[in-house]
Amino acid sequence: MRGPNKKVEHISHSSRCEKMLTQTLSMKRRTTIIIAARLLTVCTSALPIATAAQRAAQFDSTDYRYAHFSSCNTPASQTSRFSDNSSLRIKLALMSFTERCKQGGGCYVSEANEIASYSVSDMGHKGGGYPKIDNINAARLDKLLGTLPPEPPLPPKPRRVLVSVPDGDFWRTRIYDRANMPEEILELSRITRRSVPSFVLSINSVAEVEAHRYNDGGLVLSPDGKVLVSGSWFTNLKMWNPATRMKIHSTDIMSDLALEGLVFSPNGKYLVGSSRDKLVVLSATDWKQVAKLQMPYRRRVVGTVNFTADSKFLVASHPKGLTTFQISDWRTVNLPGAPEDTTALFPSDDGKWSIIVTTNEATVLWSAETQIADKIISTEGPALLASFSPDHRRVAVASSCKKQVGSHQFHIRVFDTRTGQLIHELSPNEMQYIESAEALLWSPDSQYVMGVTKSNSFFTSRNVNVWSASTGLHRGDFEGCPTNVTGIALTPDGKTLIAGCRDGKIRFWDFAAGIEKMRAFEASLTAESKQ
Fold this sequence. Notes:
Elements: H1 4-11, H2 15-25, H3 29-43, H4 49-56, E1 79-81, E2 90-97, E3 104-110, E4 114-121, E5 124-132, H5 135-146, E6 160-167, E7 170-177, H6 183-191, E8 201-204, E9 207-210, E10 218-221, E11 228-231, E12 237-241, E13 246-251, E14 261-264, E15 270-275, E16 278-283, E17 289-294, E18 305-307, E19 313-318, E20 321-326, E21 331-333, E22 342-347, E23 353-358, E24 363-367, E25 372-378, E26 383-388, E27 394-400, E28 410-416, E29 422-426, E30 437-442, E31 448-453, E32 462-468, E33 474-481, E34 485-490, E35 496-501, E36 505-510, H7 511-530
Helix pairs in contact: 2-3, 3-4, 5-6
């Protein structure tokens, strides 16, 4: 490892660089972090990004050894001298690097509990701030910094995360594995707004189909897996063979509607499309219209639409409550056994359980056998999506966070159906709150749960995130959709994952191969931890 003098000499190799850095320190903090990142290629081309950013944070380069910023070459944790000449003291630095150690990102947290984040990639430099950590999380952060967990064996380069905190007159730095971060480090990442995301596997799509000019409607797979249906606003519905990816039929029955969702009945006999205050029912045999159902409140957007497990009732939610249609004659009726204050319903495929939302926006686990809704699993916000595991032992629920600032924040949580107890909070890349939750799905063996989220604030892309059901850890992403997802489906054989994307394309992934990679990856982490 090079000595401190050589490192400082490299940083100061040009008086022009020194002048730029001096000017940077006199600017507003928001500008400082961005310019510091841009100075990387000018002044510190042989060092990771964090060296320039650390300089911008006003650490004394003559005292600071930069040991922990040489993570690509450093075999163990070190302590580094720092100077107390900063008007804004830093109490935490988090950073990570990629394979080449020329890309990465992280954040600094000041004594005032303000977060300054940055990132550097082939796409350029990004920086920003300064959100403030609330008092509860700030107290939790201080406690975590006082008891950092022991380091694991040195992980591979792209998986390293560096955690640095001041300790007297020195920086105390430890290196952890982003693929297997201790719970304390995961919590640090969540508190600092996912400044250092966990390491996950990325799976690219194997095929794409141009389905529509754009896709604002929906996508659904028939229960037998033989027909894939896609639709968009004011266009024809299209039916596809999911195995050959060829179009097999088209109908203009819903071409005069702003289609917002599609759902098959469990027995495969009916296909229903929702559009604002209307439901259109088609026969899945000849694709002809069977019924056109008017919701009781005109010009109000229909919410969730589901069939009961026995295919006897069609249940639609809307801002005023729940409307149930009896399939035999399409008349509106009261849903047998359901509580009167139900406003949304998500049934399991065996009909034994349902997630229901009540008029006071509580999310409740309801037993069809006892017809008792005694397991209140959330009162923070109403459930928007729910999916039961194939073994029916767990249920994943996406709900809004009404107590948080902003109108688009969500939780994804997994609950035990027998007790109603929370098992896991699922966070893509350790985000504290999710900006978008658009679909939920389980793997056939109930070992993994998938959710479509917007997991990066800088981009519009959606990934199908994959979490381990046993640990709740984010293990991989099926990538490819550049914007919103209108529906996802898994073929009955568990081999192919399909998603309808808002750019008008249907994308296909080799789900079986992707899950096997994640399973092998988890096994390798277990083996490494035992070494």
